[in-house]
Amino acid sequence: MIWYLRRVAIxxxxxxxxxxxxxxxxxxxxxxxxxxxxSTGGVSxxxxxVAALRTKLGLDKPILEQFATFLFAAARGDFxxxxxxxxxxxxxxxxxxxxxxxxxxxxxxxxxxxxxxxGVAAAMGRDGIFDRVASGAAxxxxxxxxxxxxxxxxxxFAQVLRWMPAGGYVAFDRxxxxxxxxxxxxxxxxxxxxxxxxxxxxxxATLDALSRDHxxxxxxxxxxxxxxxxxxxVRNALSPVVTVLGLQMGTLLGGTVLVEYVFNWPGLSTPLxxxxxxxxxxxxxxxxxxxxALFLLINLIMDAIYALLDPRARSA
Amino acid sequence: MKRIAFPAAFVAALVLTALAAPLLDLPDPxxxxxxxxxxxxxxxxxxxxxxxxxxxxxxxxxxxxxxxxVAFASAALACLVGVTLxxxxxxxxxxxxxxxxRLVDIVLCFPPILLALLVVTLLGPGAGTLILVLAVLYAxxxxxxxxxxxxxxxxxxxxxxxxxxxxxxxxxxTRTVLPNIAGPILVQFSLAVAAAVVVESGLSxxxxxxxxxxxxxxxxxxxxxxxxxxxxxxxxWPCLALTLTILAMNLLCDALRDAVDPRARAGGGRRRIVDRxxxxxxxxxxxxxxxxxISHLSVEIDTPKGTIRPVDDVSLSVASGETLAVVGESxxxxxxxxxxxxxxLDPSVRVVAGQVLFEGRDLLTLDERDLRALRGxxxxxxxxxxMTALNPVMRVGDQxxxxxxxxxAAGARAATDRALELFRRVGxxxxxxxxxxxxxxxxxxxxxxxxxxxxxxxxxxxxxADEPTTALDATVQAQILDLLADLRRDTGAALIFITxxxxxxxxxxxxxxxxxxxxxxxxxPVAAVFATPRHPYTAALLAASPDSNDPSAGIPGTVPxxxxxxxxxxxxxxxxxxxxxxxxxxxxxxLEDGRESRCVRRREIFG
Lengths: 316, 607
Hints:
The complex is a heterodimer. By secondary structure, chain A is mainly alpha-helical. Chain A has two domains: about 1-90, no CATH class; about 95-315, MetI-like (MetI-like fold), CATH 1.10.3720.10. Helices cover about 80% and strands about 0% of the residues of chain A. By secondary structure, chain B is α/β, with parallel strands linked by helices. Chain B has helices spanning about 1-20, 55-90, 95-110, 110-125, 125-155, 155-165, 170-205, 215-225, 230-260, 275, 335-340, 370-375, 385-390, 395-405, 410-425, 430-435, 445-455, 475-490, 500-510, 525-530, 535-545, 600-605, and strands spanning about 290-305, 305-320, 325, 350-360, 360, 380, 460-465, 495-500, 510-515, 520-525, 590, 595. An eight-stranded mixed sheet of chain B has the order 6-7-8-3-9-10-12-11, with helices on both faces. In chain B, a hairpin with a 2-residue loop joins strand 1 and strand 2. The longest helix of chain B is centred in the first third of the chain and has 37 residues, at about 55-90. At the A-B interface, helix 1, helix 6, helix 7, helix 9 and helix 10 of A face helix 3, helix 4, helix 7, helix 8 and helix 9 of B.
């Protein structure tokens, strides 16, 4: 249990460091932050606007005081208001985060549901036809950028075949069937890279587990092939797959930004991109910190799952 | 090398084309021509025109320039910064080390696209911003790699010596560390370039990367989306270019990694689980015979150096209640003989001749189903290293319960009770608690006791123990041997005990078979063989080191490789008694009182 508390503490420390970087990055660039944020295309903003923004962001106070204020506010979930429309950042996040989470969850589920059995099957039939085809497909999937997959899915299913809408969103409680339909393509796009990675890891881990002595022991006991496979091979191959899942979450969350954009999925990416274009710093900071916290949280969950799967990790 | 040629050629061609873009006779990629908006293939524009009437082929080639330029520049910057940080962190230790490592951890905490977006917010979009962002993203990889290498180089005697001679730190670093990590750095560099192409195109696609009108593949896909319905090809060309580029780079990375790290290469023969777990079906009933008897067993393995025969015409038998020891050095074929009786040979190992009779059936011809019914039930095996032979992620008790329930209809309760009884029988203290622990929470001796309990689970009539005490220390060895002797007396099972230690043979066995380079060289009752050996190898073993763990310690020379065996007697090159007569292959002669010997000069040497 103590190792896990340590992991939690480290994660909190990392989150604090990220908050510090995000905060001080604004001050690290040359020039007055308010002026930097307000200047677009080389046009200097007028003095009154700059002064107003300085007051709004509290830039006139000492920098450490600003940082302390920022930290305490952020800890309460208060990231300030948007520079564009004065809307509270946290309200925007609260509205859109669940939709992003849904996409991430659906994508991860799909990736594991496809990648894991395919990886095990490929390892069992090593160098066979399925292994070659699936390994080739995984290499291709890893090479296609996520937004290319998304765009091509839209082209194929919405434009050419006309089976599905090109994108959009309907709340689940308004029309469950349409909600799921609209979720399908984005979830596939989010899952594509992770599925390939999970496949590769599952294949490698299964091959590794197959070569272990305890598999021979299991066979020496006279267990059925299915039991040997599930209990002594696949079960042991799960831990590395979970590790790789945790490591890939960053890529998955980043990919979600692109996928949401491609499919007009109204998650966090819409306000994020709008904020980046409009240099709406409080909004960017709020979303980046939220997603980073999410990333750390998912990794903590993965650590817990890993410990459940591999008792040796618990005593380490 | 073949694997590296194609992707390397593709990437090289791509880089050359991008570099040569200004020299090629291409239309201006930026000049708009609204009249030819979305035009198909036309003179001078083989791929047609885009939504502003710009030439698609020219934009693709100039786009490669933008993508690759940003990718290579950022990877180079990341490499420079990362390697420097890694050198500083690894060499300075203390605060420098902590700062470097933590900085790396923090950067790795950001999802890459988000970090990029944060920087774009502050600096505005553009190629310069992209290079900076990507360098920050990929520097940690280089830093970690370098850091690890510095740590291992620091510890070498060579560096200690050079330092003692007063060499300066930068000199040591550049002379010793950098050449060592050149290979991995190259791999890391290619990975960074490939990843940078992905992120660059993604950001450009979002309109936050390369600034229009500069052509870039990401921007072309962004533009193609709007005219998808009228001109789907506009979308497909940049998608194809991007995907092929990344695919070629990934393949190049894989090939480079394999070239740099030979361990990463998939080794060994082909192994499919269908071969391992479900071999062919060949039922064949045989007349009844007591105990286990192996006759004329030979197995072969195909190796790159030719087919070898690690078990050559081996015959042995063991009766109920009896212990047969099989002695020999590593590679003598004793373990393969044991695995063959269990039907657990690796599919790369072929049985080419022989019979293994057990309870009236030839185990070599049984189908997998029938073998499975025997394994763990009538025949059980104890393996050498219980640490690896037990499943590390399963409770020991569950592994034993599993063995019980594989062969009986016992419920979970009854099986657990039986496991508890077995644990008591093999002398494990506090058995209720030990059933619930994992293998790594037990001591070596206790693990082997658990392994033995598992083998005993279904009252087998034949136990095959493959060096069960080799991995244990001396006192524990003695306890385990006592336990095995005890159990055999109580259960009346036959025991085949494989070992390389003559001391162990003397302690536990009734009969002994001595193997050398795949053949039996001598066999007989233990007392007789020990008192009056009938083969120079046995004699040498006994004379050399009766108590040593390495039986060949006192015998000059080494065991011959199986693909380069001497033409006659296999032991002749190491034998003190060898003459010209030994150049003809000796046969295994049957002697008085059930003994055997394979030596042409037996009578002259031993009388």
